[in-house]
Automatic annotation (TrEMBL):
<keyword id="KW-0175">Coiled coil</keyword>
<feature type="coiled-coil region">
    <location>
        <begin position="485"/>
        <end position="512"/>
    </location>
</feature>
<protein>
    <submittedName>
        <fullName>DUF1631 domain-containing protein</fullName>
    </submittedName>
</protein>
<feature type="compositionally biased region" description="Polar residues">
    <location>
        <begin position="1"/>
        <end position="18"/>
    </location>
</feature>
<feature type="region of interest" description="Disordered">
    <location>
        <begin position="1"/>
        <end position="24"/>
    </location>
</feature>
<dbReference type="InterPro" id="IPR012434">
    <property type="entry name" value="DUF1631"/>
</dbReference>
<dbReference type="Pfam" id="PF07793">
    <property type="entry name" value="DUF1631"/>
</dbReference>
Amino acid sequence: MKDASEPSNIVSLSQRLDPSSERGGALLNNVRDVAGRRLQILINGMFEHVDDALFDLAEKAENNAAQMHYFDGMREVRKRRPIVERSFLTQVSRDLSDFSSNYRSNSTTGSSSPLPIGSVELSLVADNELEESLAITSMIGKNETRLTRDLFAVNQRLSVIYGGIQIDDSSNPVGPSALSQAFRQAMRELSAEMRVKLIIYKLFDRYVLASLDELYQEINAELIKAGVLPQLRHEVTRGGAARAGGNATPAAADAAAGAGQAEGAFLSEDEGVASSELLQTLRTLFSARRSGPEATHLPAGALQMPSANELIGALSVLQSQAAISQQMPLRSSDAIELAGEVQHLKEHLLAQIGSLRGERPSQVSTIDEDTIDLVGMLFEFILEDRNLPTEMQVLLARLQIPYLKAAILDRKLFAHRQHPARRLLDNLADAAKGWSAESDRDHRLHDKVKSIVDRLLQDFDDDLTIFERLCTELQEFQDISRRRAELAEQRVAESTRGREKLEQARRRAAREILSRIGEHALPPLIHGILTRAWANYLVLTILRQGEESSEFRDAVRFTNDFIDSTKPARTLDERRALRQMLPGIERALRRGLANVAFQESDIDRLLAQLHTYYRHQLGEPVPEAEVHAVEESTTLPIPESIQPIAESEAELARSEPEAEAALDTPEMLLVSELKPGTWLEFVTGPETIERAKLSWISPMSGRYLFVNRRGLKVADHAPQELAAALAAGTARVLDSTALFDRALDAIVGRLSQPATATASDTE
C-alpha cells in the first residue's frame, strides 16, 4: 500500500515514462540542458590548455621537424576549435534526443549496436586510427571504472525516462563511451597529425572526462528533484572489499555498506593478523578523546551524516582542485599555506559535501572522523618532519586527499606495513631524504616524486591498485639511480683509499729519513736529495713492494750510507772507506731516481755536483767556486715535480692524524655508532644545506667519507671533527626509521598529552 505521505509524482524503477510524452519530454530536455551547459564549460576549459601543452612540447621537441608539427597543430586548433566544439556538443544533444528511436529501430531490425572501440574493429583500421582507438579505449575504461557510483544512478534514471530501455555504461548517451565517440567524430574536423590529436585526447580525458562526476551528480539531482527514483542508492563497500558492480541492487549495496560500518573497529585488520600494540593504543586514545569533556554530540534533528560515497565524492572534487594548484610553480610560502590546508581539511570536506548535497552536515561518523584526524596528523607530521627537505615536504603534503580517500576505502592502510599506499609514502620519503638541489641538478629525483604526486592527484579515484603500480615504478627508478650511485661511490672510495695509502706511505718515508738525519747538519745538496728525491723513491717502494720487502730495506740502508758519506774523511782509512762507498751510492741513486721520473740529464747533473762534493771531502783539489756552489746553493738539479715529503720533524708532526678523542662525550659516542648507509645533514654555508650518506670508514685513518645521492663525494671528516660538527649543530644525523612508523609514534605521543596541551598545540 502506498504511503499517504509519499509525493504523487514519484516514479519508481518499475514505472516507465514515454520520452514523447509531456513529462518525459520535459525531463529529457532538462537532462539535455544540464549536459549541454556542463559540457560547454568543460570543453572550453579543455581547449584553453591545448595551446600551452602543444607549445611546451614544441619547445622540448627532439628536432625541428617535430617542433613544426606541434606549431602547425597549434595553428590548426586555433582555426578549427569553434567547429570542433560545436560538432561535439551537437552530437551529444542529438544522441540524447535520438537514443530512444535509434534503440527501438535497432531492436526491430535486429541490427546490433556498433562494435565498441578496441574490439574487432581494430584489425580493420590503419595504424594511426589504431593508435587513436587504443587511446580512447583506455580512457573510456578508466573513467567507467572511476565513475561507477554516479554512472549507475544515471543509467537507472535515464532508463525510466526512455520508457524502460535497459541502459548500461556503454549505451548511456552521456556516458564516457558515448562522449568519447562524439569527441572522436568531432576531431575529424581537424587535419592535425596524430601525435597532436593524441595530446588533445589526453587533455579531453583530463579536463572533460575527469570532471563528469559533476555532470552526473547534477543530472541525478535534477531527476531526484523531479521524483525519478529518489531512493535509489549505489554504495561503495568499505574495508577494501570489492566494489558493487553496475548491476548491484540497492539492497545488496546497502548491506555491503552496512557491513563496512558494522566492522566498527577503527583501523581494522585482517583476521588471523595480530593487532599491533601501537594501533591498539591509537584506538584507545581516539576513543578517550571522543568521550572527553570537549566531545561533541550530534544534536537531535541534525542532518544525516555523510556516507562513504559522499565523502569519496567530495574528496574527489577537492582532489581535482588540488591537482590544478599542483601545476603552479613552487613558492616559499607554500609550506605555510599547506599547513593551514592540512589542518582544515575536515571543514573543507564538510563544506564540499554541503555544496553537493545542498545542505551542510555538522559532522561525520565516528570511524570517518577518526580516519580524517589520523590522516591529518600524518600530514601535519610530514610538514614538520626535519628528515625531509622543505621542497619535498611541500610535494608530499599534497597527497593528503588521495591518502584520506585510500584510508576511507581501505581501513587496513594504517594496520599493515606492507600496504601498497603505505609502502609508496615510505619509499617516497626515503628517496626524498637524500635530496638536495646540489645533488639533483638535473631534477631527475624531484621530477619523479612530482610526477607520482601529480598522477595520484589526477588519476586516483577509488582503484587502490594505482599505489602498487606507482610503488613498482618508484622502485625501478630508485634501483637505476642506486646502481649509478654505487659505481660513483665505489670510485670515490677507491680514490680515497689510494690517497690514504699514499699519505701513509709519505709519512712512513718521512719518518725513516728525518729520524736518520736527526741532528746531522747536512749540506743542502745531500739534504735535498734525501728529503725530496730519495723520499719519493721510498714512497714508491712502500706502495709497490711493501714495507717488509728487501727493496725497502735496501732503500733505508742507502739512506744510512748516504748520511755517513757526509762525515769528514780526514784519515787515510776514512778516505779509503768513502772511496769504496761511492760506486754503490752512484748506482743506487741512478736506479732510484730513474724510478721517480728523473730524466737522464737531471741525474747526470745531480751526480756531477755530488762528484764535486766528494772530491772536496776526499781532499782533492776543487775550485773554490764549485765547492761554494755545492755547499751553499739552494737551487738543486731536481725537477719541480719532485716535492719534499717533509723537511722537518715539526712539519711531519703537523701532517700526522690527530689522536683519537675520548669516547666519553655524547657526540663521540654517536659518531662511533654510525654505520655506512646513515644519512646526515650538513650546514655548508650561511644558507646552504647538503645531505650526505656515510659511505665508508677508513680502516687506516678512521676518517668518515660522505657522498651525496649520486655517489659523489661531499666531505670526509675525522671522528673528532664530525663530533665537533654535531655538537655545534652544523651536522645532524637523519632518522632511518620509516616515515609511517615515526609519524604514528609521534601521533601517539601527541594524543597522550593532556587535552589542554593538545588543544594549545593546534592553535
